[in-house]
Amino acid sequence: MPASATLITIGFIAIAIHIAASLFYVYRLRGDVRFESFSEYLRKGWPIFTPLNCLLYMFSESRARVALPQLKNFSELETLRENWPIIRKEAVELYKHGYFDSTTKAGSNASFDIGFRTFFKYGWSKFYVTWYGHTHESAKLLCPETVEVLKRVPTINGAMFSLLPAGGQLTRHMDPVACSLRYHLGLMTPNSERCFLNVDGQTYAWSDGGALLFDETYLHYARNDSDQDRIILMCDVNRPMNFLGAFLNLLYKGLMRMTVVPNLDGDKRGLSNIVFSSLSPILGKTKALKQSNVFLYKVVKYAVNLTLAAVVAGVIYCGFRLITFLLGTL
Fold first, then answer.
1. 62-330: what fold?
2. Domain extents for the chain?
3. Model's pTM, two decimal places?
4. Mind listing the pLDDT tens digit for each residue in 15-41?
């Protein structure tokens, strides 16, 4: 066998071992809280992203290798907390004028949010300010001071206002991609232990002006069991990594740039938003099929999911091949 073919074979074996080890690590070893079953892991663990996520964990700086990184090690984020009354004022105005409701209105472009759409049914809503290199025109118009504050923190990849109404919840889940850490800044909260976030078994109650940083690729859930709505500023903060991790993260950030979702007409639409809205009529028919023919519904559902998984796998594979090619030229 030629030396080049041998190297390619070894490379594929190494990738296969890495994939298997990554899946086992996230399913059985990572964090203090475990998935209840392998089925839950497949549904909520995003295994298609696990191999690349594990590389980013490996290349992360020590300050980011825990479920709840300490804010004192991310001093640049203090700018947000110092300006929380200014940010709160604009968030409350958006709330009073119904902009959170408009972003989840069925059929609107804003409602076709492939990243957060599953939260809508629990009452959660949002208003984007920035998202991976793009600042929304509606945010420039309606919350300009928040936009200016965010500009002063270059490690922020994206930011939005997030509303969790009284009685609302987010069921246990983990986010798919590890390119960022998640930051929460309390703006209008019940200031009660009945309104909380649980990350890897650790509970945090939101408070006005209070801040939290966590790794959203750990299992987490949220509840608002109070009688007041909760509004926070939610930011994606760049995951601190060495140069290898930063290089790999370019692939993820490229994917995230395609997930821009508008708040209002006139805002930019990302590729995923356009595709998702185009498929909406088909998805509507699929939901109707669930009532009339459950078996056929499951066939269609799994066919679509497998197709999406194949597309993502193809993108990740191409990324690995590109990295292998670049390393081979060094």
1. Jelly Rolls (2.60.120)
2. 62-330
3. 0.87
4. 889 889 999 999 999 999 999 998 899
